[in-house]
Amino acid sequence: MLYLIAILVGLGIGRLRGGRIAHLAGLRLRWLWLVPLSLAIQLLIFPLFSGAPLVAYGTAPLHLASYGLVILWMALNLRVVPLRGFLVGAALNLVAVVANGGYMPASAAALRRAGLDQTAQRLLDGDVVANVILMSPSTHLNALGDWLSLPSWVPFSTAFSIGDVLIMIGLVWLTARGMIAGD
User: Fold this and answer.
1) How far apart are alpha carbons 39 and 69 in whole angstroms?
2) In whole angstroms, what is the distance from residue 89 CA to residue 71 CA?
3) How much is the pTM?
4) What is the DSSP letter of 142?
5) Euclidean distance between CA atoms 30 and 46, whole angstroms
6) What is the spatial distance between Cα 127 and Cα 60, in angstroms, rounded to a whole number?
């Protein structure tokens, strides 16, 4: 949901700069179908409104494959400058996920700050929740994990990573810049 907020911020900035949504079609992004394919894979293994995945087997490899598709898409579109920061953020997330067997380590404290006490407790109880595992001394590259958070009073608050911050900056930049004709 944070990514949607980043897009909305980008739309606002683009509008303030005199841009138009219609100009986003001029971005000429190649192989764009890789992005919804990656999202579809993630929704099959980490559904939004259900605790049970639609595909219950191969979660870690499918998660890694979904990252691979997005990174491939970004690599194919490196000529679009804002995607470079996006690529760095996605690569940082991928490194953390690979180092932890296909899951992102998440801080229970960050989840609690975000108002996600139930998720934090499930992780503390030893569960894996969607694509996250409990951040601990036994998880790897915790600095790249989900240890940042917005306060619980912010709608859709959650824990997030440095990689997510870079992705969100890239989304804001891409959206705002893409709304300006000839940019």
Assistant:
1) 10
2) 10
3) 0.86
4) G
5) 27
6) 15
Q: Is the pLDDT of residue 164 over 80?
A: yes
Which amino acid is residue 155, in one-letter code?
P
- The answer to whether the CB of 132 falls within 8 A of the CB of 103 is yes
Please state, in angstroms and rounded to a whole number, the distance separating the CA atoms of residues 97 and 104.
5
Q: What pLDDT digit, counting tens, does each position of 167-178 carry? A: 999 999 999 999
Q: Which amino acid is at 177?
A: R
Beta bridge mates, 146: 106
Measure the CA–CA gap between 111 and 106, rounded to whole angstroms.
8
| Amino acid identity at 32 | L
Say how far apart CA 3 and CA 16 lie, in whole Å: 20
Q: Which structure tokens are listed for 121?
A: 């407790």
- Write out pLDDT tens, residues 57-93: 777 888 889 989 999 999 999 998 888 888 999 999 9
The domain limits of the chain are: 2-178
